[in-house]
């Protein structure tokens, strides 16, 4: 089988629930995203458990703090053996994260502008610019800072890919197969569209985790993208 680009979002409230999903998915999934909810419930102990089972972990903590604090937190995450970690795309935060990662294998992903933000949210922050201009500015700053990649909407993937070049990592959530329930996602693309637009990895949650048979749901996505 060629590289499986699907990262399964473990958006659940306990280690028990997450463990049950990982068991059901078995060998069909090798990469899991642990976000704030599960991290708050089960912490690094559960992250270490996943790593101990040979799974790759994307720790989606979107760090944002003074440089020294970010640097030291990133060092801890890097030591644990996590593969991807998110930080906010503010230049000082990104530089501190790169410093904290040192020579570890951890790959740092920047969030440019939260996709829930619109023009008014930026105006409220005192940023008098268009959302897409801020996304582009932060994407450039991320590359300058030595960040490995970006998390972005699949609908921004093609333009960002042109901006960051072929080697940077592009991870896209907001992915749904045609006909699958969208939940609260408004602007979605299919897995094949996201990959065509230049994504290297796709974060998928509910379409897989809330399926009656998560492993079968994963296999059908892999079929869809020819993996
Ligand atoms: O269940 P679903 O596939 O919508 O889950 C998507 C995952 O990606 C969730 O963990 C969500 O927090 C995350 N995410 C997102 N949209 C963004 C950024 C992150 O859905 N813009």
Description:
By secondary structure, the protein is of the alpha/beta class. It has helices at 15-25, 36-52, 67-80, 91-101, 119-125, 131-145, 154-164, 191-196, 206-209, 214-224, and strands at 6-9, 31-34, 56-63, 84-88, 107-111, 149-151, 169-172, 201-204. The protein has a single domain, classed as Alpha-Beta Barrel (TIM Barrel). Helix content is 47%, strand content 16%. The chain has an eight-stranded parallel beta barrel, surrounded by five helices. α3 (67-80) runs parallel beside α4 and α4 runs parallel beside α6. The radius of gyration is 17 Å and the shape is globular. Cytidine-5'-monophosphate binds next to β8 and α9. Residues 9, 11, 35, 115, 153, 173-174, 183, 185, 203-207 line the site of cytidine-5'-monophosphate.
**CATH architecture call:** Alpha-Beta Barrel
Spell out which ligands are present. Answer: cytidine-5'-monophosphate
> CATH topology, which one?
TIM Barrel
Oligomer: single chain
- CATH class label: Alpha Beta
What share of residues is helical?
Answer: 40-55%
Outline the biggest β-sheet: 8 strands, parallel, barrel
Could you tell me the mean pLDDT? 95
Computed CA radius of gyration, to the nearest angstrom: 17 Å
- The end-to-end distance, rounded to whole angstroms, is 6 Å
What is the CATH superfamily classification? Aldolase class I
Order of helices and strands: EHEHEHEHEHHEHEHEHH
Total DSSP helices = 10
Beta-strand residue fraction: 15-25%
Number of strands: 8
Number of domains: 1
Q: How does the overall form come out from the CA principal axes?
A: globular
Query: Main sheet: which strands, in order across?
Result: 1-2-3-4-5-6-7-8
Low-confidence spans = none
